[in-house]
Each structure stands twice: as C-alpha cells, then as structure tokens.
Write the structure tokens for this entry.
Amino acid sequence: MLDIIVSVLTRTIVAGTPLLLATVGEIITERSGILNLGMEGLMATGAVTGFIVTFITGSPWLGMLAAILVGALLSMLHGFVCIGLRANQVVSGLALTMLGLGLSGLWGKPYIGRPLENRMGHLYIPGLSDIPILGDVFLNHDWYVYLAVLIGLLAMFALKHTKAGIILRSVGENPKAAESQGIPVNRVKYIAVAIGGALAGMAGSFLSTAYSGSWNEGMTAGRGWIVIALTIFALWQPSGAFLGAYLFGGIFVLQYMLQPLGISPNILAMLPYVATLLVLLIYGLSASGQRRMNAPATLGEPYVRGER
Amino acid sequence: MMKSVPLEKTLRRTQHLEMRGISKSFLDVKANQDINLSIKSGEILGLLGENGAGKTTLMNILYGLYHPDEGEILINGSPVQLRSPKDSMRAGIGMIHQHFMLVQKHSVLENIALGYDDAPFFFPHRHLRSKILELSAQYGLEVDPDKPIWELSAGEQQRVEIVKALSRNADVLIMDEPTSVLTPQEAEELFGILKTMCADGHSVILISHKLDEIMELCNRVMVLRKGQLTGEAAIEDVDKGKLAEMMIGRQIANAYPKAHCQPGEAILEIQDLDVDSDRGLPAVRHLSLKVRKNEILGIAGVSGNGQQELVETITGLRKGLSGKVLMKGKPLNHADARRAHALGITHVPEERIKYGIVPNLLLYENSVLKRHRDTPFSSWIKMNYGVIKDHAGHLVDGFQVDAPSINVKVKNLSGGNIQKLILGREISAGPDLLIAAHPTYGLDVGATEYVRKQIIELRDQGGAVLLVSEDLDELFMVCDRIAVMFEGRFMGEVIPQDCSIEEIGLMMAGSTPTEVLTHAD
Amino acid sequence: MQIDLLPRERSTGLQNLTILIGSLLAGLLAVSVVFALNGVNPALAIFSIFRGSFGSWYGIKETITKAIPLILIGSGLALAYKAKFWNIGAESQLLVGAIFATWVGLHWGPHLPAPVIVPLMFLAAFLGGALWGVIPAYLKVRFGINEIISTLMLNYIAAEFVKFLVVGPWKGASKGGYPYTDDLPAQAILSHFSYSRISPVLLVLAIIAALVLGWIVYRSRFGYEIRVIGENTHAARYSGINFFRTSLLIMVVSGGMAGLTGAGELMSIHHYLSYPETISAGYGFTAIIVAWLARLNPAFTIVSGLFFAGIIVGGDAIQISMGMPAATVSVFNGMILVFLIMGDFFISHKLRIRTGRASHA
C-alpha cells in the first residue's frame, strides 16, 4: 500500500510539471492582457523541437533551450497579430494551435517511435535522495521538475515584489494608466507573450525528452487546453498554479488506477474542466466575487494607444 | 525648429513656467490658437472655459501627450521639448486627469511605484512607503499605502494621484476638473491641501468651469473660449458675474422665430425623483418637472450635475430609486428602453457615437435603430428593407444629411451628419416627447443652426421637448422655459426673455435665485 | 522612407475580395516556405492536395461529403460570431447532438418508420446541441462568465462523457468488446448517392441551412438585432434590444446546428456512436475557419466549407502519395487562418508609403 502511495505521489509531481510550467507562462501572458489559446500548439512544437535537437546533439539541455526559443518565436506570431495588428485574440490563438500541431507533426514525422538515448538527467543528492519515501517522492526527479518549481516560485516573487511585476500587472489592468506613467505598453505585452511561449515550449520539451523519451503526434494530449483552464483555476496567481498543476496532475495519475474500484476514468478526466467551470461560477455569483477572482481587466481587448 | 536645452539642466526646481504662442489643430478644428500662459512658483492659476474651449488640449500639450503645431514651452526661461509624459515629469510637471489614471485592483503603493524611476527593482514598495508617509504628513494627504484603490473614495483616490505626482517631484501640478467627482467636504479638504502645497513653493494650474472654486482658490485666472484666450486677470479684479461674462461671451444671439402657441397639457410629469449614479452616489435628488405639449423645457447646468442620470431614467436606460415618472399619465416602466419608446419618447443621446448609432452598419440600417420592430419597418420576423431604404432616403433629404449614399457605413459620416441622421430618425418617429441631450455639442455652425431649427419645428407642431445643454446661448435661443440643475436639484426656473445669462451662470454655480438677485443689486 | 498606417475610411467589395484572395495566397506562400524548409517540393505538395480533392470524381465526392458538416456547423458559428458571441464549443455541441440522436435512434428507431425516426433524430440532435450551447450563453448573460472559456471546458466534458458512454453503459452487445454502441436500425440510416458517401438529405439540408441562416442574419429582425449587439452593445441597450433573450436564441441556433451535424454524421457515415475524435473529427474547430473565411456570412460557408473540405481530403491524399503526416492539414488551416486575420487589418487600415524625410518632424 505504501508503495502505491509513494508511486502515486511521485508520478503526480511528474505529471504536474508540464502543467505548472505552461500555466505560469499563460498567467504571465494573460496578466499583460493578452489571451493565448495557442498553448497546445506551442507545447507540441516545443516537444518536437526539444526531441529533434536532443536526438541530433545528444544534449537534452540544448533540446530544452531550442524548445524555449522556438516556443517564444512562434508565440511572437500571435503577439504580432494581436498586439501589432490588434486582431481577434481568440481566432489568432486557435490558428496558433492548429499551426503548432501541424508544424510539430510535419517536423516530427521522421522521428516517430525512435527512442531517445540521452534523456534529461535526474538530480541526485547523495544521502538526501536516499531517504525513504521523502527522497523517493521529492528528490529523485529530473531537472525539469525542479526548474518548474523554481520558475513558479520566481514568478510568484516577481509578480508581487518587483517593479517588473507591477508593470506587467498594470499593463493588463489599465494600459492607459501605465502609458501615462511612461510605460511602453506594447513592448511589455510582447515580452509577456514571448515568455508565455517560451515556458510552453519548455513544457513540451519536458514531455518528449524527460517524461516519455520519444516523440509521437498528439503527445501533448490536450494539456495545452488544461493549461487554459488551470490559469483560471489558479485565479491568475502562480501560487494557484502550483496547487492546480499538481492537483490536475494527480487526477491524470489516478484516472486509471481507480478504474478497478468502479470509478470511471472518463468521469475523473472531466474533473479539471468541471472544477474550472465551478470556480468561474462561484466567483461569478457576486460582483465582489468577480473582483476577488482577479481576472486581468483588459484580458482579450486590443489596446489602441492615444495620439502619438 | 527651436533649440532645446537638455532636460537635466532644468532639473532644479521649476520656478517659472511659460507657454508661448501655442497653437494646435485636430483635422479642421482649431483647439488652441496662439495661447500664452505663464505661472510662477506659489501661484494657483485658474483656467476657465466651457466644454470644448480648449483647456484640456492646452494642458495635454504641457503634459507631453500632444505636440503643439506652433509655439514653445520654457521652464525657468529655457526652452524645453516635451515629447512624452516622461519628459514632462522630468521637467517637474505633473497632471491629474479628470478620470484618474489608477489601477483599481492595485494598492496605493503599487500605483505609485508604477513608472517610478527611482524605485529599486526588488521590493519597490518598501522604498516608497517611507516617502509616501513623509509626503502625506507634509501636506496633510492622508492615504493608507496598502489599501487597494477600489476601496478608496473619489477624494482619497485623488490624494493618491497628488502623492503620485509629488513623489515624482512635480513642481507644477495640473488638475483637470478636480472637484467634479468630489463631495463638497472633500473639495474643501482638497483646497486646503493645494494651499499648503503652494505655500511650499509648488504651483497649480486648475482647469475648471466652476466659478466658485476659481474665486476661492486662484490667484489669477485665464479664460478660454473656442480655442482662444479671451481674458486674463488677477482674482482681485474680477467677480463671479464678470467671470461668467468672460466665459460665456457677451453677445446673446437672438432667439429663433417660434410660433406663438399656448403650451398644452402635460406630456411628461416627474414627481420627487431620486436617482443614483453608477458610483452609487445620489445624482438626482427630489426632482420634479413638467414638460407640456408645444413646449421646450431646457435644462441648464454644468455637466455632471445629474442631467445624464435624469435623461437615462426617462428614456428607460436607468432605474430610478423613488418618485414617479409619468408619460401621458402612464407610469414609465423603468429600465426598459422599448417601453419608453412605445409610450412616444424619442431620444437624441449625449454620447451619440456610443449610443445613438452602430458605426459599422450601413446608413439605412441605422435609420431605423430602435424603430426596427415597428411597422412598416418590419413585419413578424422580416425586416422590410425596401421600406427602410425609402425611409432612409427621406431622412437624408429631409434632414440634409450629407452622405454619398444610404449604403455607406455610418462611421464614415462626419459628426454633424451623424447627428442630423439621429435627430431625423428621432423626430420622424413623430414623438410626443423628444429628449435631446447636448444635441449640438461639437457641431459646426451650419449643422448647429439646422438642428436647433428642427427642434423648434417639432415643438411648433405639437411636440414636447426636453433639451439638456451646457450651451447657454442655445438654451436662450431655443427654449420656452429653462430650469437650472445643480447637484441633482433644480436651483430655479427662468423664462429666457426675462433673464440675463449671468443670472443663469450664477445658478449653475450653485446659487439660488434669491442669492442671484442680491448679487445683482 | 516612412510607412504610415492610416484608418481606411471605406472599403469596397472589390477591395475586400482582393484582400481576401491576397490573404489566401500569402497563406499558401507561407505554407510553401514551411514545406520547402522541410525538404518537400511545395509546388508539388500544394498541387497534389488540390488534385486529391478536386482533381477526380472520387476526390470531389469526398470533398462534398466533408463539406456538409463544415457548412452546417460553420453557418451556425457565423451567426453567433456576428453577435460577437465566441462559441468555440461546436465540437461538443456536435457530440451532444450525436448522443441525443443515438438514444432516440436506438430506443425508438426499431419501432418507427424512416420518415418518422429520421426527422425525430434530427430534432433530438438539434435540441441536444442547443441545450449544450445555451449553457454558456446563460452563464455569460447571467454571471458574466466568458463564453470562450466555458465553451472550451464544455468541449472536454462532453468528449469525456461520450467516452464514458461508449466504453460503459452504452457499449454495444454486438461489437465484440470495441467501444462502440450498437448499430442504429436500418430505417435510421441515410442513403447515399451511388458510389459516394454523400447523403442527398444532408446535402440539401446543408445548402438550405446556409441560405436560411444567411437570410436570418441579413434580412430578419432577429438578424438585425444580432448585428446591432455584435457591433455596439451600448446601442443595443439604447434601442431596447433584449440582450438576455437574443443571446440565448443565438446559441440555440448555433449549438443546434452543430447538434444537427452530429446526427447527420451518425446517420450517414458512422451508423453508431464511438470515440469522440471519430465522431466530431475536428469539424467543430475547422468550422471556425470556415466561418471566418466566409466573412461571417452564413451563406458564404457553402464556398468556404468546400474549400476547407478540399484541404482535408487533399491532406489525406498526400499522406498516401507523398508520405506526409496527417498534421499537414493543420499547417494549412493554421497558416491560412493567421493570414486571414492579418488581412482583416488591411480591410480597416491602409498603408501609405512615403519617400523622403517626414514632413512634420
């Protein structure tokens, strides 16, 4: 029994890792007022890029770097269309998803089913990693797991306690006020979109170079859409992303483990989406709730500067 | 091209600021023409004028938001280039807009840290807290640095804006209509703060159209009218009557010819109406009025005194709290524009582009907005576009709408033509009551004339009209009676022929008719 | 040299068409670049795609088969988008329609003649899709919940529910362990034109639906109110339009059309309910581009639906002939959609390129 619990917890942390990375990315993007529905496509592109570069160079770190770069670049297309051309963010995000899924399929075709020799390494701390239970659950993962935690903590800190965080949040809440204080609103938005894409790319490369060690079309399996849900579930707070990512990751893990007990995996799989709708509903019931929900005030609205 | 001195050299405190020969046009509208302004430290300068007189444009130039077509700005005698708000801030100029530039969800600290150059990257709040508390104590600007903005009253939010400006070392503070959102008590507190600041060597430019506060607060006053400087005086040399005259202009145009008709029965009757504003503050208080057949009732007043809320309540866009609104004896079912329309009310809205039209629909489609459910324009589920196009054609001809065809998007028409279209639509419905809010605001002379004549014609033919306007000339030329609204109440009612524009000006500033009479003696 | 972006005061039909075609060509060019970078001859690939879909009778028939659901869904989406109601839940509205139709077909089908059961299944499917569509509309007007998010969430909920049904309670006794329901009774199956998979009933239904919805948007009172709401909510309030009722009705139609499509696919193509990816086949998402390319005019989805059906069929063809992955179609769709929305910018703005020094410096 203990074995099972340890295994579930360990796998939960692993399953939550890509969700955490990409959700933090989407939170940063949405905080600037830009909705990016293209996360699924960005993750897929990141996954294939990470795989190919790792496969060719043999270095999963180079693979991660490449995935980050490609994710940021591709999401800048969304940035250009939404910020520069002030186009509809919903449609642009969907286009990005299609494009990302398409590109990843096209690029990854020759690599389908080929195993990776060098996966991302594990962190091993002599002594600590050997502690029974605790060591197994928390200190025996690959680098992505710890990087994700680090990035999440950094985002938490930066959003609250740095000037960059204040600027980012202000741009999403009231771009006019930010502009009147001399903040280059559009540049901030571009940066936020690029960071979001970079983290989605990184989440993708985790899937292909650490989690499974292979590339398959459709391997993101809807995680990009869960990220959109998680962003709301987290109430646009990185701290909420931690909770949500590991919770939803746990649901992933439990899906098939509980089947013998008569619990349908499909009903379990619905939970993240139902939970997100419930969060929206609970906060939507009252005006004060809508304020506490903390959605960026200008999310999805194109920003048109005044004169000049 | 003027030579400019690097901003750093002006970074000592701004003792003397000067704008010379400033002109600025937007398309064909001359917003500012050759305006000179100067202010020294310790001074409070009042900038007085009606809406659209060019006050805000002039100040936006000073704040680096607009660039003047001509003219120069000097600080302590040296010319400076103000390309952006950042330049202006560095030059010691701060501006507090009428609509506060604050992030509602963020704390006071976060709002002040935004764009504050000297704040450290990490933990900017900590650094600022002491500075804010220091400024607060120095000028009596009480603010709680950790409260989110939305929890603050309008007065407190304004204090945050002042602290924000001061924290950026603003020596010259521009305040755009600062009391328009304040309660009288908050306004008094603000005046106290501003006086303290000036005693300390700051200077303030106060944009206002309220005579009282100019008289109370300023050392000097400049009056703008239609983009030009029409007067400048030390405050000791003027009184309220004189200021009203300078602001409004001496000439009162002659009234338009009107048919002599006896007002008929009451069409609209309002008894003891109370309405709240969006902010939940009382906007209309215990107000009663009557508009009769063959009559134009004008409502004069500075905007923001409850006129908008009154109009919205009558037209079914807002719920009244208590009191009665009777249209031809029938109670108006509040908050339902269809019902108001069915009872014979039509409405030329204040924000005509926002409410009155659908910019991306074609002219003929806009010609039946709100009437689209009436026969003959639609039957059951079908729109009768043949009939609608004929109707649009009649409107364009009958109301002199200058449009290439009825098949153009309305957003491509000029403001004047949009207004003629709206007016035509609302008048051609044959209303029992027309409510027109600022119907000629921003229109050129020809269109203005035309719109006014159409309103009079409607009245001559038996309609009742409620005309809300800030333009006193217009009210004098058009109305049969004028009621003056101030802080949600009627201060008094006058017959245009028996009254001077100054009397109304004083009532607009909150004096009751008796006070006005004593003043005139 | 200086490039100015100016708002375009008016745009003619010809300009719009030019920009539309320009966007499509630019999209194809971008796809070509992607192909070329990937070592595929772009001219050959694009040619093969259009040969696969429009170059043979078989291709044309398959294209029409796949255009039918795209037109049905796309026309309903166009109507909703016209009111700026961003329904991206067509995928699941289709599935719920299919669930309703399956239940009716399996329970009542065996006892009823074809002329009764077929319309009944369509009706049930329409209601199912409408129900699934009204939920986000209600959540939006009553609680201010963003419809993009709610329709997205409902997509996944419905998909998991279908999986639950086909592996669980509805699993067919005759399917030997596969996650399918039993076959619909013969009278609930739509016949095809010979040597094709085109159902005449569905073909007529799709064309009529697109035209009727086009009429509704541009000629009916409901359509007038839809367009007023979409273009200016303030003016909608000013003119006394009932926002609540109209929004719900919009989603009844939009969701209902997707639901109807679910029944059609089931009765004409699949004959039983199976995994959601099989039933909806991504039509709900592709139909979004179909509506966009039709410039949100439901009637035009007949053309844009055929175009994207062609890309789907052609995409399948080059999988076989050139060994390209299934995802190639997504590259096409995504790239074309990106350029379409970029093109929109140039419908409302124009570029002015000036040479020499800027005059107002």
Remarks:
- Confidence is low (pLDDT under 50) at residues 1-11 of chain B.
- The radius of gyration of chain B is 25 Å.
- The domain at 14-239 of chain B is CATH 3.40.50.300 (Rossmann fold).
- Residues 124-139 of chain B form the longest helix (16 residues).
